[in-house]
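Q: Hi! First time doing this. I have a protein sequence and I read that you can turn it into a structure. Is that right? Here it is:
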Amino acid sequence: MKESIRNELPGEISEIIGDKVLTEIIIRTAIGDVAAVITTRSAKEMNLKVGDQVLALVKATNVSVRRTG
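A: Yes, that's right. Below is the predicted 3D structure, encoded as C-alpha cells:
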C-alpha cells in the first residue's frame, strides 16, 4: 500500500480486544475512534498496549462503515 497523508490517522490506543486469532485495536484520533482488526500475532509482535501512540493506515478496500444514530 502506498502511504500518503490522506490515508494516515495518528492516534492513541484506547482499547485492545483480542482472542487467539484476531485482535481489535480501538484508536482515538482527532476525528473520532477508529477500530482496526489485526492478527493477534501481529499485535504481540508490535507489543501494542493501551496508551501507545500509533498511526492507522487506511486502505479504501478495507474500510467498514456503520450507522451511529
